[in-house]
Amino acid sequence: MTVTLITGANKGIGFETARQLAERGHDLWIGARDRERGERAAAELGVRSVQLDVTDDDSVAAALAVIDEASGRLDLLVHNAGILETGLDGPTAVRMFDTNAVGMVRVTEAALPLLRRSSSAHVVTVSSSMGSFWAVNNPARAESQLPLALYAASKAAATMLSVQYAKVHPGITFTALEPGTTATDMTAGFGIGRPVAETAGVVVRLALEGVGGPSGTLRDENGELPW
Fold this sequence. Notes:
alpha/beta; globular; Sc_DH/Rdtase_CS; NAD(P)-bd_dom_sf; Short-chain dehydrogenase; NADP
């Protein structure tokens, strides 16, 4: 049975990804900053939850200790927790990078001992083509029209971290994923996006198909993306 942790999984893409993986028989852990919301989401899906705030070192360490004690390893880690704010100032930058990029480092570092016990570990980062130089400079792409400087920069950092982790840990597959524009709470202000279930299906497919494949890439449902 595949042991899986998804961060930011009490709603949106994370929750639906958890649902679809649970239906495939994964030993699944929902990571949620709000303990009660995480527990409610886990109860709905018949899985387990841990309180996990990716911006808090102690919270991350405690969550991985719980999973270690109960499951003994980790086969699939999905970095889904993320925020989108439209401001352009120092405090906003700190919040965005702390969640979208530094949070990935915190969780990955805490999870590495468990991932090394897996025979086919895969770390998937739900990134964004907003962090792709190619996409934001391509007038044919919607990304070139969205003034989301800090979100784009934080997702570029997340993708680069995935690339660098792949170099340092060749025994683990690392994939950065462009999930596609999705109608979630985070994108509600833009009034755009496809259904959450459709995007989660892409995350699930690439997470399961990517094990042992090319590591350190940015991919969408159609294949590898330049960035």
